[in-house]
Design brief:
Pseudouridine synthase; 13 strands; 14% helix; two-stranded antiparallel sheet; alpha+beta; 2 domains
């Protein structure tokens, strides 16, 4: 049995608030050299790109020294390198901080800004922006919001405390309240609890409800009506991917600006800020697991479809 070892610190600094990629060589004898493994592992790279990285000394070991492509394969060895950071379309909306102490940063994110680096969104993310703007390289996300959803996101300042805050969410000890703008339905004038089993498959854009034991639960309340629109309070008791969007669609009142429900219109192109999803993570309430402080935090954002009614035609920015 292999003994668990702690992960050594990165010998490379962040770039634009983005961590270098860390790889640990598997415990196997399938490769003769480090280069052989990296070419196979990074098979999505352009032909010759991995060899060029190694030749240029861009892949380093724990001591920060370049790794030779022909170095013998050493199971368990850690390597680091920086991914290319191609230009990204800036998300031109403010990113507010609603709370900060020695342990936490709670941001109030705009629509269209991803929470953490993923896919084509790397530097234009809440995490990368906050690391740069606040000067906190160790900042980490305790949970995430969809890129299209606006509102409150919690980040941790100290890596050793991150697990405690993540458990708040996994153990459902955070009260989350969302606001959504959707078509008015007179049958939803009282509180309704929606329960279903939601499946989100890798590589499939939209989630779907399937038969089986419910794994998602949302309380839906109509708060106010303006003509043919309703302002709804959504209180999720679970945290499945796209849960609120799926449940509102299942009730026959899909959230305005949703490109996936009820019909998949495709991903929102980078730089197209005309039709924000009218969903806002409005409140977070929890007992701080480190300090014991009772937090009751509220977003300062509003949803344009409601504030500008009846003029909103789906082409305004948030």
């Amino acid at each position: 049995m292999r003994r668990k070892t702690s992960v050594p610190p990165s010998p490379l600094p962040q770039r634009q608030g983005v961590d270098p990629v860390r790889i640990r060589l598997p415990f196997s004898d399938a490769w003769a050299t480090v280069g052989d493994y990296l070419v196979e592992r990074l098979s999505g790279a352009a032909p010759g790109e991995v060899a060029a990285m190694l030749d240029s000394g861009l892949v380093v070991g724990v001591d920060g020294q370049p790794v030779d492509a022909h170095a013998p394969y050493s199971p368990g060895r850690y390597l680091w390198f920086h991914r290319d950071l191609p230009p990204e379309v800036p998300v031109p909306f403010r990113l507010d901080v609603v709370y900060r102490d020695d342990h936490l940063v709670v941001a109030d994110k705009p629509h269209f800004l991803a929470t953490t680096p993923r896919g084509s969104h790397v530097t234009e993310t809440v995490l990368a922006r906050l690391r740069r703007e606040l000067g906190i390289p160790a900042l980490g996300a305790a949970h995430r919001l969809d890129r299209l959803t606006a509102g409150l996101v919690l980040f941790t300042v100290r890596p050793a405390e991150r697990g405690a805050y993540q458990r708040l969410f996994s153990e459902r000890r955070v009260r989350k309240e969302y606001q959504a703008i959707a078509p008015y339905d007179p049958s939803l004038t009282v509180s309704r609890t929606v329960r279903s089993r939601i499946l989100k498959e890798r590589g499939v854009m939209a989630a779907r409800e399937i038969e089986g034991e419910p794994n998602a639960e949302t309380v839906v309340e109509l708060v106010e009506r303006r003509g043919d629109l309703g302002r709804y309070r959504l209180t999720p008791r679970t945290g499945q991917t796209h849960q609120l969007r799926v449940h509102m669609n299942a009730l026959g009142v899909p959230i305005l600006g949703d490109p996936l429900y009820p019909e998949v219109a495709g991903p929102v192109p980078d730089g197209d800020f005309r039709r924000p999803l009218q969903l806002l993570a409005r409140r977070l309430e929890f007992t701080d697991p480190v300090t014991g402080v009772e937090h009751r935090l509220c977003s300062g954002r509003t949803l344009r479809a409601w504030e500008s009614y009846p003029a909103w035609a789906g082409d305004q920015v948030p």
